[in-house]
Amino acid sequence: MSKKEIIHLYKKIIEDLKSLIEKGDYKKGDLLPSENELCKKYETTRVTIRQALSALANMGYITRKHGKGSIVSEPKSGLGILSLSGVTANIGDRKLTTTILQKPIKKAWPDDFFFDLGEDELAAGCIFFSRLRYINNTPVLYEETHISNVDLPHFSSRTLENKSLFKILKEHYKIEVKEGEQKIWAIHADKNISHLLNIKTSHPIVHMKRRLQTNNKGVRIYSSLYCNTEENFLQDSF
Fold first, then answer.
1. Which of 72, 96, 111 finishes a domain?
2. CA geometry: angle at 57 spanning 97 and 136, to 5°?
3. Cβ pair 71, 62 in contact under 8 A
């Protein structure tokens, strides 16, 4: 079997088992088939099976216990904030709602901005807004966004509540995200963030700073995000 075929099979095993767990064929506390049984079913080696099971464990679908096997967990839900297609496109059938804490306003870039800016960007200024995102009525993501104020007429008057930023940019301005850079830290929430996300200040959260390049060279999207992953894990496909 070629390396490409092994990778394809590895992904298939993960998707098959995920599907069975999500459909309820395997419930919390159930044992998955043994490594030997899975080897026979997929006609592959234990190495491939173990790698697939480890991936499922990392996703929160199972826990692996020596001498017992792979036990189905209460799976968390994947949250696709890492994806360049945006949060709205990556939460599945869960209810996503948005509260706009700061409506879009035109302003100068902050002096201590978290990415280096070009002279053209500095001269143009930015459009700033902040949002608190809820999934099934639980606050999970606080986001501060700065967009280069280039070729975005009337943007500050647009309503962003419960709407996709990327969809608005595409439909009204023909602007699409092409690539991006992301920096990620694990931190403890400060007093303000813990209040917004309804967690204790000692609670660990994910902090991400990202810069997204669009098909309009003058327009970049910068975001500082704080995510509570207690009930969600970060998910994306590559």
1. 72
2. 15
3. yes
